[in-house]
Amino acid sequence: MTQATTQLPSPKDVRDMLEELLGKDVTVGDGSPAAAADLNKAVVAIYVDDANQIAGVAGMDLPLAAWIGAAIGLIPKGGAEACVEDGELSKMVGENVREVCNIMAALLNREGTPHLRLEKESVYLPGETAPQEAQARLVALGARLDLAVSVAGYGAGRLWISLAG
After folding, report:
1. DSSP β-ladder status, 117-124 and 155-163
2. Per-residue pLDDT tens for 127-143?
């Protein structure tokens, strides 16, 4: 029996997961693909399969990472705005975003498909350099989802998910 391939989540799946996680209204729409220059100030998370091969990569721009990291930690919007102004995530917001990236692995797992998990220590915050293979995957054409995401009471940003092909 052949195992099905990993599928991208739908925008609704992403919205539902974030709303449940953050306890806030989230809107999701079409977004623009990441460019190489975007990745210097983005969060990059690497998902691997059971053979420890990169099977998926997710990214979010600095503003979205700040909004999500603050919202899940019940940090006031001003704390997230300070992160955006400073061009880096505070330690607490960064740790919160790492946890969100871990939970996002559930978006890539479906019954009958290869199990993907967040590779340990594989969330790169703005200012940290993600491996070239992960960066290349995030800007490549192919199986990808590019979303504009807005978190009620915080703000909007960009989310990218790309599957290795």
Report:
1. unpaired
2. 999 999 999 999 988 89
Model-level pTM greater than 0.70?
A: yes
Residue with tokens 């978190």: 151
Residue 30: count of CB within 10 angstroms of its CB:
9
Q: pLDDT tens digits for 72-85?
A: 999 999 999 999 99
Residue 121 is predicted with a pLDDT of 86
CA distance 14 to 27: 10
Asked if residue 55 lies in contact with residue 44, where contact means CB atoms within 8 angstroms, the answer is no
- In whole angstroms, what is the distance from residue 97 CA to residue 78 CA? 17
Q: What are phi and psi of 136, to 5 degrees?
A: -65, -40
Alpha-carbon span 149 to 32, nearest angstrom = 11
Cα–Cα nearest to 58, from 147, 120, 128: 147
Judge residue 133's burial from the number of C-beta atoms within 10 Å of its C-beta, 0-12 exposed, 13-18 middle, 19 or more buried.
Answer: exposed
